[in-house]
Each structure stands twice: as structure tokens, then as C-alpha cells.
């Protein structure tokens, strides 16, 4: 469904061209300070505008509709709403029967029997990540002094990001990219045995972000070609510090107190100006489709802040889950 | 926690050297035929014995303790038990304070305050995957005619598996590997929006398997260096068939009816004969540790059947979830 | 938390005097027709205005903010919002430290460490049931031809409701009441074994409604003084029809196809004009408290439509859960 | 399904005449001391033997199969198994098509399409409460110094329990009863807003126990005929102590620190010696059915220890959930 988390529970709703998108955070502890200005920095990072992103500008003003009182969370669900201002009736109807390659047009049509809101990707739009980023703002406060930082590592296979973007813009094509995320000041022993390992829960969340096609922790796929003596991280201090960090800060699914490191693969934006082949679902005829309008040349550029939010949400949940176990030992 | 799934719910329990390991499957529909012999093939594949796997042999006989009557599942929880026969008091006590690199010894000690069963990895042992394979046997019947097939793609960075194993055995070191899994006859429209995308739920499950450090779908990390015109899969038939399959059979988190394809990175076995450095948690002294006994040189060899089971369990759950939506359209 | 249901999942949010109250319904199947006018009848029933209810009038206009397109549910989450128009700064601050007897003032203060929104009961206000009634409107459509009907059986211990209300209004005191709810056209075999019996899940939901202090099914508490030969309902037809219905339509936690019947006890409204004793949490002094303003003399009068909504929501979830099991037998 | 709880998660499995019944407790904190003898007292109370209970005697020896090491819980799932020793092939086959009134025979047959284990009630047998009592033994340790005590208040409508039992035994009929449960030393502020009120979660659990048909808190159904000035409990101390306890220790769904009090109605045992009418599901003919063998005349006599276990399990879960919120205020 559209909810995630066990104790810090994030639920998203909305459509790209419907009335609104938004998020409900249930289980946020009371007493977290929260003001409108707290959202500014992360929303600016998610926004388009720089080269390689769509020039379309939206206000994206979050309205906190419940769960905050006198500048602090109350313990009741926090609902944050983004009303869609730009919902004038652009005509997407011709796309209903002509699914865009790489998009969810075909699968959502089949899943929801034709009742889906198909305008601009509807519920499958990247616009839904607004709610995620908003929840991330709160989660980042909650997990402090843990700190999450994600950045673009490469785009289009090149670490010279600007040059790669320039080439792609010129070609009318789109390119993918790789994001690396690091979490510092991670407490030892977050994560749960077996099905709720840190890798399990974090990858679950990360793969929810549209366009993600791979997740790897520490040495990741490179570990497959390493030997045990290379890959094993020797412990060098009783607090769990290791000499190397091939494990990405996680042993047996549980944080070992070293920096958490993981990378995600972002596929190239599905919407491209170049003509593509697809099929008309009603007539059965092949059609050539050139997607007009403005798109991100490289959606990966806007993903880091979403990955950060997703990670902070997961760590907040793990942190709350860990506290319950801790108490017993103290007694 | 130790449970997974929404409608087809798999819970595992047990320790490597405790009384038992096992699994409870709640939500398995009534009427699935199940006999003792159904487990034979997959358990043989998981078993050790071939070159590169530990020569230790265990019976691993599954006892169905509930939920099956007259050769069929009843609709009540199916509990499958593996009593540990080989629980004589090997002395693991000297390892309590000397965590093995790459293992969960350190993290489980911190998480459970010293109360964890540390013998042979305890609850974090690969032996827990017995329950997963057992549940997979049932799930595979349930999802028929969907068919899951996983195989080793490469080990130690080489596709010549036998040669790579020989080299590793000779060196006393261990090596990792890459597994590829394919699912055929997948119905269109499995998966749920946003947080329960197929990639999300499947990676959640797959990362539960010990030693997995990366998961990628379709072109995966390679997609990051592709262009949109290369990566997008053009639709060529109204049933959703695409000309290429860079997406790995999933659009917007939902199956598009093409073959599902994903790969997982398995790290090298953490237990190696070569001496390693670690730290004594009590004294704070560095210690040299050579892990005796018999281990898998390449645990990746035993992982494919576990990946298959994990995948079948996930697809069974998605299948049951999808049925509820379908009914509405019919009316 | 503030969510309920396994497949048809209802989440509520909001505060009595905050920005809004509302509901998110996740898992509602696509294709359910829904228009603004569908809400009218049930909202009118929930509204105050008749004798024994508060004369305060609010518009309570539901705004469907997501999940509905072209007059039908889309399969994405349905968010329904009620913006609070009447949020001018009434002064509740003097009540922060003086908990009203029978209300959640004391417990919410302790639970949320003083950060709770205390205005008008905040998140614990009966106003939150607006979201429940809205979700119930959709659930009722989904479960058709099942039909839920709840009515007041007695108030203040008397079946002459009007006379009892008149007496209570005159005295400045409040009175409780008993609601009976009946569900017709119930399919056989809804409900799940053990922890998710119909009685379990339904009582869970019903006790969420503020002011409910008892729930009984069929003969209920009277069954405790009956004999087995009196209480057992003899089967008289192969469709499960029984001669009597002491079980209230449920055997072993699962519907038997007969009418479902249960009763709920509603306590008297906690807010009364008569002076009460309470304690000042800061000073520790006893205080006399007379609650001013307009209250419901008998909140039970407004509860039936909420009980109906709650019941429909539960039955919708059971119905969707049942469909997944059914499919297997067909194959 | 067959699982209950959010952090302290209890899952039951098994059948009356299958291989076993048992329980898995996931989320039990590490470090809880547990020995075989801890189970003795509560299992003796659940056992039959006294007048009004079946003279059949079973060993009911719990085997702890996982999650306990060196006399303490480890933090991994605790599985407790009861192998059924008395599974010789009594012939229940003639009952398959002739559902016993008051039992789950008819509903389980319809729900599971004839695949259900029908022997002795199968998965719907009261024997499943063995697992609940076992989990309760652990939960009671966890919630200490909270203390749960349940006792029979009346049977067959009479508080003279022995006389009522004698009369019922003589008549060959069965009788019901009322159990009252009290919880002392309850911390303030357990319970969660709206759907997870203490009344909601506790009634959910209590109605899982076979034969329960009503639950009421504090004054319960009597509250419906009280006035607000009678029912409201005045606060008399800043720790939340109230002069009366009509609320049963709960305001707004959250514990107020006063004694928790609730009552449950137990229906008369469905199995009786007197002949009853039922219908043959295959032939459609009415049949007269006299249930042979030994049954409990008054199952209510064996219910108190089950109610205690159920209550302790619920309070353990609430306690663990509450700890996570508490930590935030401290910082």
C-alpha cells in the first residue's frame, strides 16, 4: 500500500494533476519543533530549475494541516498538504490508450481497470516525492545527531556531470545516474533480525522512489568479485570501529556504528523528445510517440534530497524501534 | 521483525545450535496439495556437499506440525519444524568477546545486551534459510504457472565457476558471486503503488538472506549510464510485450507481463581459514583469529534456491493481494 | 496508531480546533462511483441540531482531495479533508492544567508531555469521527448488498427516548444510551481464525469511537446466564440458516450468514453544566469546574451513523480479505 | 490472521488433533529470565479436572524450541511447542457434514472449502489457548510490577458458583459465566490515540478467546443508564487518582493510572449431552445430534487464566510502544 514504517509511519497520497499531493506521518513523537521555514532548504534542492531539470516552476508550498501546535509536533498524525495549483485541463486523453515506454501508463491501466488518473502519470508521478521530502524534514530532526548526506556520483556513466548533461540536452535524449548516500553518527545496533535488516528496510523504501533500478551497500556488487580476506572489515576498537568499511556499516543486517554507505542506480528519464515506438491499446496499431513539453534531462539530479528523506525516515523508524529493546536492559 | 508478507505471511524462528529452526506460514490458502516428498528437490539444492561448500552433512528433515490435513493445506497456519540434531556442546564461549569480522557477532552482542545465542551465529545463521526454502516450496505451488529460476552467474568475478572455486579452495580464502533470477509467466499488474512496488518488496525480502549486498532489476546499475532512448522498452503488443526488457519486467513498480529479471550480489563467506585481526571486547586487545572447522568457500553456490524461495514467497503474496482488486471490476 | 484495516485501510488525522480533520482510505478498489452528494445523508445524521444534541452548527463539507477521478475511485488513496472554519482563538488555556473529568485531558497531557493540542479535546475530539463517517460512505457502497443499520435502543435506561432527553435537558445533566446494530445480507465465511475473528476486529473498531464502554454480540452478556441448550442456534437449512440467532450471526469468529447483531453501550456525555470536582495539575489544589458552552445532552443520539460507518469499514476489509482465499478453490 | 501485537507479537498455530499446537513470540526483549517451572502455575489453572470441567487429562508440557538461551530470552523469536500426544484416529468423519450447533464446524467448512481439519474443532479448538497462556507467562514477567488478576464472577446467572455447577451437571446441560479482570500498578499513558485505544486493542484480543460474546470496561453497559454527574470520575490527586472508577482506568482510550477493570461474558459450552437439531449438509435432512464424550459443563471456569494471559500480552505490547515516545521528552 501507500504506507511505510512500523512506529514512524509515512503515508502518501495524491496525483500529479489532481487536487493535491501530500503525506500523513503517524507515530511522530510529540515535542519535535517544526516551522514553515524548516522545509525551505530541502524543497529548494528537490526543485527543478538548474540545467538538466525541467524549467517548469511550481510553488510547492507545504501546508501543515494537523499534528503541529505551538511550533511543535503534538504526537497526533502530522498531515502536510500540497494543493496542485496547475491543474487546468491539459489534454492527456490521447495518451490513455497509447502507453509511454518506460512509464507506468500501461501497468496502471491494467491494474486499475481504466479508472486510474492518467494525467501526468497520476499517482505514479514523481510529484508524489514531495510528501516524502516533507516527511524527511521531520525525520532528519528526529534522528539528529545522525546525519544523512546524498550526492550525485556520476551521470550518463561520467563523473563530469556538467559535460554529460550538456551532451544529453543537445541530443534531445535523457541520461541516468548514480547517487551515493552516507549516514554519519549512526548508533550501533539499529536494525532488526532477518526480515527487517537495515538493508531490507532501506532498499524497500529506496526502491519506492520512481526510476530507481539498483541498490547496493558498502562494496555492493564489487563484493561479488572480492575474497573474504579482502572484504571482511577488521574490528580495531571496542566501539565497533573497523579498519575498512566494505560492509557499508552493517553486519548481519544491523548497524555496527561505522558510516553507512549505499549507492542507487537511477535510470534515464523515461520522457524524451526523440520519437519512440509504442502500441495503441485499442486499435492494436504501432504508433510513433514523441513526448512534447519540458522534462528533466537527468532526473538523477533531483533524486539526492529524496534519497536523504527516504533514508532519514527509515532511520527514524529504526531508532524508535530500538528504544523499546534498550529499556529492558537498564532495569 | 521475523515476519514477512501481508496475506501470505512467513515467520521464521530458531538458532543454529539451539533446539530447532523453522517457519510458520500464515495465510496460505486451503487446498494446496503438500507431501513430504515435495521438499526433497529444493532441500537437496540448498544442501552442502559439492565442491566449494562445507562437507558437513545434516539431515534437514522438515516436519509439518500444523496446517496440513489429508495431504492438503487447511487454511490454518502451516508450521514446519527442523529439530537440530547436532547440538552437542561445541565450545563457542571463547568467541563471545572476540567478534568475527564480517559476522553479526559484534552487532548482535550490542543489540541484545549479551543475551544472544552466540553459538554458530545463533539466530543470524544461514541455517535459518531452511525455513525460507520450506515456505518457498509451498509458494512455488501457489504461484504456478509462474515459474522462478535462479542460477549462479559468476563467482569471484569469473564466469568459469569451477576454476574460480578451485583457486579459492587452494588459497584458503573465500569468494563471492552473482546470482541471476528470472520469473516467467508473470501476470500483468502485480505490485502495489509507491511503497509496495515489486522492486521494493522483493529487495526487502532478498536483502534478508544473509550475505546479500546488492540487488538490481533489469539493466540495473548499467541503466545509470544508458540514455532514455536505449533504456526505454518499446511496447510491441497489446498484452504489454516489449521489444527489449531493460526494465526487468516492471514499470512503475508493477509487473508488465514480461519476464522478471534481477541480480543479487553475494559477498564472500565471512568465515575463512586465513588469520584475521579483530578486537577482544573485554580486554580491548587486538587478537589474531583463524576460524577453524569447515566452511563454504563460496556461499553463493547455495544461494540460488534460497533466492527462488524468497521470490516465490513475494510473488505469492502479491498474487493474493491482486485478487482482491480484480473482483471489483468483474461485478 | 491512527490507522485501521488490512486491505481497506482507514487513517484519520486532525484536531477539533486545528486546521482540519480528515481521513485517508488506502486500498479502496478502483471503480467505486463517488460523488459529493453521496455524503449528504450520513453527514446529516451525524450532525447536531435535534433535541439532546448541541445547537452548534458546522458546515462539515467534505473535500475529496485525491483518489477520485471522473466520478470513480482510481485505486490510489482517497483523501477527504474537512477544513475547520471555526478556529478563532477561543481560550482553552485555563483548562490545560485543570483536566475535565471523563475527558482525555489528563491522559493526553501525560502521554504527549504537554505538547498535545488541548483545544476542544484536540485529536481526541468526537469531531474526528467525521473522517470515519466519510470512509463509511465509501465502505457502504463497497459491501453492497450487505446493509448496515444502527439505531438507538434506549437512553438513560429508558426506551422512551424523547421523555428521557427532556428530563436530562431540564436537569443540566447528561445521559448515556445503548445502540443496536444489525447487518443484513452477510455472506457466509467472513472473518479470520483466532485473532481476527469478526467480534475481535469489529470490537476493536467500535471501541475507537469516543464514549463507547461495552460491546456485546448476539445474546451477549445475557448468554452468561443461559444454558447451552437455550443458547445454541440449531441449523435449519444447508445455507447456514439457524432457527434462533443467539450467536449474533457469528460462529467461531466467522459469519454464518445469519443477520449480524451487536449492541454498544455509550456513556453519558462527559461535558456537563453541573459543577464537578477536579484537580489543578500545577498547584495540586482541588477546583470546582462547571463546563460552559453548548454540549450534547446525549451523545448516543449521534452515534448510530458512526457505528454504521465503523461496521461497514470492517466488513469491507473482511470482504476484500475473503476474496483472496476464494480464488484458490475455483482453480 | 493468527498473529497479534505490534512490538510484542504473538502468533499461534496448531490443531486440536493434529501434530501440535504452539506459539511464536516475536519482539520479546532479550534478558527476560525464563525456566520450565515458570509455566507450571498458569498451566495448572487452565487445566481441566475440577467439577464442571472435563475429566480428560493431557500433559500439556511446553517445549521451548527457540529464543531462550542460558535461562533468558535472547531477543530472537521464542517458539513454544505442545506436541499432541493423544492423536489416535478417533472418528470425527461422521461430523464433517453434520455441523454441531454453536461450534465453528459450519463456518470453517464454508471458509476453507472442506479442507479444514475438522477433528475436535481443529484450528478452532479451545486447545489453541495453550499457546496464549504460554505467551502470557512471559508477558506477565515483562509487565511486572503491573499485575493482572481475573476471576469468575458468576456462572449460570448465579454467584453461588458451586451450586450452579451442580445443577448444570445434573441436567446434562452447560452454563455460561462472567469473568472480571483487574490490572493493578498500571502506568499512566499506555494506549494509543483513536484506533489503538486500550479498549480497542484489549477487546480485540479478548474476543479471540473462544466463547466470549461480550466485553465491557468500568461501568460498561450500566454506564448507558447513568448520568454524566454519576459516571464522571473526579480527579483527586495530580497523579490521576480518581474518587470513583466508573471509567475502568481508561480515559480517551489511554490508561489514567487507576485500576483497570473489565468484564467478559462467556457463553455456555456448545457441546452438550442433550440432543440438538442440526442439518446434514450433504443430504439436507434434519438430524438429531447428541454429543458424546466428556465436555466442560462450564468452560467459563477455565477462562480466567486465559483472560489474564491475553491481558498481559496486550499490556506488554502497549508498554513497549510507550517507551519509544518517552525517550523524546527526556532529550
- Mind telling me the C-alpha Rg of chain A? 21 Å
The CATH superfamily label of chain A reads: Chorismate synthase AroC
Number of domains of chain A: 1
Amount of helix of chain A: 10-25%
Please give the oligomerization state of what you see. Answer: homotetramer
For the record, what CATH class of chain A applies?
Alpha Beta
* Major sheet: arrangement of strands of chain A: 1-2-3-7-4
Number of strands of chain A: 15
What would you say the CATH architecture of chain A is? 4-Layer Sandwich
- Derived from helix and strand composition plus strand pairing, the structural class of chain A reads alpha+beta
Portion in strands of chain A? 15-25%
Most extensive interface: pair and counts?
A-B, 111 and 111 residues
CATH fold call of chain A: Chorismate synthase, AroC fold
Tell me the major beta sheet of chain A. Answer: 5 strands, antiparallel
Order of helix and strand elements from N to C terminus of chain A: EEEHEEEEHHEHEHEHEEEEEH
Count of helical regions of chain A: 7
Any idea what the shape of chain A is?
A: globular
Which spans of chain A of ≥5 residues are poorly predicted at pLDDT below 50? Answer: 326-331
Mean pLDDT of chain A: 93
Distance between the termini of chain A: 38 Å
